[in-house]
Amino acid sequence: MPSAVSLLSTYVDKANINPPPSDNGYRKALQDTSWADGLRGIAAVFVMFSHMTMAFARWIVIPSYGKNGPAHLMQRPVFRLVAQGAAWVAVFIILSGFVNSLKAVKLARAGRIEPALSNLATSSFRRSFRLVLPATAATILSWFITQTGAYDTAKKSNAYWLYTTSPNPSSSWGTAVEDLVHAIRTTWTYNPENPYDQPQWALLYLLQGSMFVFTALLVTINLAPRWRVLTIMLLYFWSWNWGIKLGDPMVGANVFTGIILAELNHSEYPLRFARFSPFFAPPLVACALVFMSFPSQFQDWVPWSNLLLRWYWRIAPQNAELMRFWPTVGAQILTFTVVMSPHLRRALSHRWLLWLGKISFPLYLLHGSFMRSLLAWLLFARAKLTEIEEEGHKYMRYPLPGAPTFLVVMPIFLLILFTATHFWATKVEPHFGTITKTAEDIMFVGGDKNPTLPVRKD
């Protein structure tokens, strides 16, 4: 036992996750916001895992094998987070609100209102380009793969998420171009849908949330911090009512949470409570992860989710969405705890998690196309079409392979996928940055040499 303790102590020292020894150490840890990249990277990986679960292990989605029946380990709270895509999308949106408001809030607290307003204007402009351009490129890539018939294997497989999200090739290249334009357009319209890349449904709400951030801060930027926070809190509770009218009742609540966390990050409260982090962080994180584990269906089958279900009917706002209420609340508690805990911040700032954060958006955009093409080929290359009955209908599909095949194929697939996303992040993303900067130079005041309407000189 002494040797085990010694080894553990050595590991903790090398991992650099010991608590800072003084208030100055705590302050330094609390000034670092790179943890947001680490948490974003984890969220992107779990979104991918949720789609893999929907493809190959749908039984994890339900909380047990029947009402009051036995539950597999992977169906239990926390373990079932691999199937909770909605919870991790909520984390994405909260972090979007946090990051987009961080600098503006800092400038406003320092009394630099004009630079804060300029930052808001520039950030909102860049945000639109940096979401739309990569998403469009990923759609074009998936569209081209579709037209070559590379999704056919996935379409004929018995992997639910693969065959339901694999589109058919267009009847002609002329029709294909029309279909591409339609897919790009509908990604950014009410009730978004992209037939070539299903995960892009969330991008409109990320963009919408960013606009909420910029609008809310534009209105409150001149307020003293305590009044600004109070106003954002009122918007938070109000958004539960009107959010559903904009297509998603959770976006407003999550982005306003992000703004409040940015205010909290620049306050002294995290420092005041830093020394208590080892005591309050573990139970709060555990609570958050249980909430995030709330199943999307059959919630009354097991006691833990049935308890949350009953509380939902007692406390949830009228327009809240059942399957996403508790995962959203859990994501908010999780990010709040990280902001308040220097220990969690340091853990989430590990270099490998920061690398995941760097490739998080490419991973979100590309994993679906790679699953429907490369992963389907690797898994079903030697499979034969078999008659499978589903909901009273019979289909000819490739059956799911056994566990040994997955153990061999998945490491190969993940290695290729992460290599491709790293390439995208380092070689492709900079071009989108260049396009955005060029648009700024042309469209911003001072860059337009030939205005459409003449400018008065008086």
Number of strands: 2
- Main sheet properties: 2 strands, antiparallel
Radius of gyration: 24 Å
What's the arrangement of strands in the largest beta sheet? 1-2
Q: Pairing-aware structural class of the strands and helices?
A: mainly alpha
Could you tell me the strand content as a percent range?
Answer: under 5%
Overall pLDDT: 88
How many helices? 19
Task: Using the alpha-carbon principal axes, give the shape.
Answer: globular
Helix percentage range: 55-70%
Terminal CA distance: 83 Å
Poorly predicted runs are 1-21
Order of helices and strands: HHHHHHHHHHHHHHHHHHEEH
Describe this structure in words.
The protein is mainly α. It has 19 helices and two strands. It has helices at 2-15, 23-31, 35-56, 85-109, 113-147, 152-155, 160-165, 173-186, 203-220, 225-242, 251-265, 269-272, 277-292, 303-315, 322-340, 342-348, 351-358, 360-380, 403-443; strands spanning 386-390, 393-397. The protein has a two-stranded antiparallel sheet with strand order 1-2. Strand 1 (386-390) and strand 2 (393-397) form a beta hairpin. The radius of gyration is 24 Å and the shape is globular.
Topology:
Elements: H1 2-15, H2 23-31, H3 35-56, H4 85-109, H5 113-147, H6 152-155, H7 160-165, H8 173-186, H9 203-220, H10 225-242, H11 251-265, H12 269-272, H13 277-292, H14 303-315, H15 322-340, H16 342-348, H17 351-358, H18 360-380, E1 386-390, E2 393-397, H19 403-443
Antiparallel strand pairs: 1-2
Helix pairs in contact: 2-16, 3-4, 3-16, 3-17, 3-18, 4-5, 4-9, 4-11, 4-15, 5-8, 5-9, 5-18, 5-19, 9-11, 10-11, 11-15, 13-15, 15-16, 18-19
